[in-house]
């Protein structure tokens, strides 16, 4: 999963980067509204954390511009302003949630997970596909009731495909959502990662649509 953090306070941006990265997201940080506007309009992100008090192009204007241009990436607003009318303005402008500074990173992560679940059609933190269960809150995977330990990057691959269950996901999309922009990887990174997950779960969970990408079956299939 990829997150765009738009925050001009370097200390807060570093805290957000560390918190989101520890939760398994590939994080891109920007302090400038114009840069963030261009980036979100040209690259795929799963969530945007947006500060309202940006210099130049402020957060509310940025959000309205994204929505008017068809950028539907979920957005959670961060602001030092606590007046209810401003929160209403943010939601009506297209924000998915609103968090007032100061805040605990744990609360932000809980809200982000809830937004991502809703945007992918999952109402709870558990994703169930036949006998495979992924608990996205506890970061646990079981199959047939048996716990299956998974390293972070393998877990991220599995959960991303599970959130997209029933849809074929290309290697390019997986690369963009699993790795930060400046991360060095070889051309076979995704193929090798899929291979390692299959060794843990069996070959029947992640399936290949040759020439197009990978998928897991929809729970309703």
Descriptive account of the structure:
41% of the residues lie in helices and 20% in strands. By secondary structure, the protein is α/β, with parallel strands linked by helices. The strands form three sheets. It has a five-stranded parallel sheet, sandwiched between helices. A four-stranded antiparallel sheet has the order 6-7-8-9, covered by helices on one side. Strands 10-11 form a two-stranded antiparallel sheet. Strand 3, helix 3 (59-68) and strand 4 (75-79) form a beta-alpha-beta unit. The two termini are 24 Å apart.
Q: TL;DR of this structure?
A:
The protein has 8 helices and 11 strands. With 221 residues, the chain is α/β, with parallel strands linked by helices.
DSSP strand count: 11
Q: What is the multimeric organization of the chains shown?
A: single chain
Query: pLDDT below 50 for ≥5 consecutive residues: which ranges?
Result: none
Going by CATH, the architecture of the largest domain would be: 3-Layer(aba) Sandwich
Rg measurement, Å: 18 Å
CATH superfamily of the largest domain: Response regulator
Run of helices and strands: EHEHEHEHEHEEEEHHHEE
Mean pLDDT: 85
- Which descriptor suits the 3D outline? elongated
Largest sheet: 5 strands, parallel
What is the terminal-to-terminal distance?
24 Å
Give the number of helices: 8
Structural class: alpha/beta
Highest CATH level, the class of the largest domain: Alpha Beta
Adjacency order of strands in the biggest sheet: 2-1-3-4-5
Our count of domains comes out at 2
**Helix percentage:** 40-55%
Report the β-strand fraction as a percent range. Answer: 15-25%
């Amino acid at each position: 999963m990829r997150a765009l953090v738009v925050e001009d306070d370097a200390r807060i941006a570093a805290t957000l980067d560390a918190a989101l990265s520890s939760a398994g997201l590939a994080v891109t940080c920007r302090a400038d509204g114009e840069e963030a506007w261009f980036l979100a309009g040209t690259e795929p992100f799963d969530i945007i954390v947006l500060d309202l008090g940006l210099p130049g192009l402020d957060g509310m204007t940025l959000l309205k511009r994204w929505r008017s241009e068809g950028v539907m990436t979920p957005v959670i607003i961060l602001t030092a302003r606590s007046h209810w009318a401003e929160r209403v303005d943010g939601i009506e402008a297209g924000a998915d949630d609103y968090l007032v500074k100061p805040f605990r990173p744990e609360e932000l992560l809980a809200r982000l997970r809830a937004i991502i679940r809703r945007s992918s059609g999952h109402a709870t933190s558990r994703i169930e596909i036949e006998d495979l269960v992924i608990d996205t809150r506890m970061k646990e995977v079981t199959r047939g009731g048996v716990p299956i330990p998974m390293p972070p990057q393998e877990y991220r691959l599995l959960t991303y495909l599970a959130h997209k269950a029933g849809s074929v996901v290309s290697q390019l999309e997986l690369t963009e959502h699993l790795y930060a922009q400046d991360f060095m990887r070889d051309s076979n990174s995704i193929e090798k990662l899929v291979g390692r997950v299959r060794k843990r779960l069996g070959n029947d969970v992640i399936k290949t649509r040759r020439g197009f990408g990978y998928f897991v079956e929809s729970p309703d299939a």
